[in-house]
Design brief:
- By secondary structure, this protein is of the alpha/beta class.
- The chain folds into 2 domains: 2-146, Glutaredoxin; 167-331, no CATH class.
- 49% of the residues lie in helices and 9% in strands.
- The chain has helices at residues 61-70, 73-82, 93-102, 134-145, 151-159, 165-177, 181-194, 203-212, 219-226, 237-252, 262-274, 279-296, 300-310, 318-331, and strands at residues 2-3, 30-31, 51-56, 84-89, 108-109, 111-115, 121-126.
- It has a 5-stranded mixed beta sheet with strand order 2-4-3-6-7. A two-stranded antiparallel ribbon has the order 1-5.
- The chain is globular, with a radius of gyration of 23 Å.
- The model is unreliable at 2-26 (pLDDT under 50).
Length: 340
Amino acid sequence: MKSFKSIVLFILFTNLSTGIAQTLSKPIGFLNLPLTIEDIFKNENNSAKPVFLEAFLPTCQHCIAYNKNLDSPEINKYLDDNFQAYRIDVSKKEVNDFLRSKKIVINSTPTFLVFNHYGVLMNIEEAQPEFNSIEGIKELLNKAKSPTQNQFARFENYKKGIFDNNSLQDIAFYSKMSCDTLNNIEIVNKLTNNLKESEYDSEIAYNIVSKMMMDEQNPLFNYFVNHTSKYESYADANQIKRAIENVIMIALYQKNAKNFSFERYNKMKRELISIGIPLKSVHSRFIYYEVLKDLETKNISNATKRIKTYYEGKPIPSREKEFWCGELKKFNTAHKVCPL
């Protein structure tokens, strides 16, 4: 499966300039896209059928391997009977815009997304190799269109206190892919609490960290970072390192990350360094937050020192210097001369 290193890849649609709306002579199976993605969900265009989007990349070998079954007559008829189905190329700018508006993350391709005809995300699944068959594809999509088994329905039941461990894993993934940080942290904490410490090195534990977790303040994550070799029967070393980096960076991109303590920043930095991230790269990810915390406590001199240390005494590039001087001035309007 083709994966992406960055935790915040927001992607999803295809060839919008040549697409046209569904017509009476519509093809069987996958349809041509309308002029804009949003047109799919307009009242005058949509039907009662759910919308299935196969998110793919033209260069993704795993996507190409899926094409044989997705383009088969049996699946084409199944799609025509059950969905408005579209293929979407995740390399397109229009896709980024659409995904940002829906707060959806795509980490790998192909990914199967199913919306109701009003545009609400009902289910999102990474299409793993073991589902690359006629029956496997039907299994994923039957669940996605089921009013009781799709992830949205399970999440609604969770809010009512109705859930089991399997549904928790399902909605933990759903909440991560739909950028629902607060609910994700709560659900992943429940999953962690359901594990015995002797199960922390299990494949289920690995999946929780690598596929569901959005916050590094979790005892399972702490164990994971300090016992990476225990997971090498489930994943290679690079996958394990990528899982650690992704969890930390997702946490760092949260809206409230500027409120983290210096102790938490330093712990996150140590964890990134432990997996081989270069020191300069690590510091570049935290410098803004650290300077901002100094400024918010009116410690202008420490903020200035921190910036100079980051640049190792070398001249600061003009645009970066302009930015830092602007930040310093916001909190110290009495000084007209930038201390950098």
